[in-house]
Design brief:
Blueprint (H helix, E strand, L loop, with lengths): L1 H12 L2 H15 L4 H14 L1 H11 L1
Helix pairs in contact: 1-3, 2-4, 3-4
InterPro entries: Catalase_immune_responsive
Protein name: Catalase immune-responsive domain-containing protein
Pfam families: Catalase-rel (PF06628)
């Protein structure tokens, strides 16, 4: 759990441009993966930051 808090704090500390780039990079790396894996990663991302998870999920649709 500590790792998720640290990851969320890191994401919160980023500038908006960097948040967008990170979100796009994560979504791009997941795009051709199986849907079950995509969902698992989004679930883990939500534990770090709900906004990050939501933005990645939107890009995967």
């Amino acid at each position: 759990m500590k790792e998720m808090i640290q990851a969320g704090n890191f994401y919160d500390s980023l500038e908006e441009k960097d948040k967008k780039e990170l979100t796009e990079a994560i979504a791009e790396s997941l795009f051709f993966q199986e849907e079950a894996l995509q969902k698992d990663v989004v679930t883990l991302l939500a534990k770090a930051d709900l906004r990050l998870a939501s933005e990645v999920e939107k890009r995967l649709l």
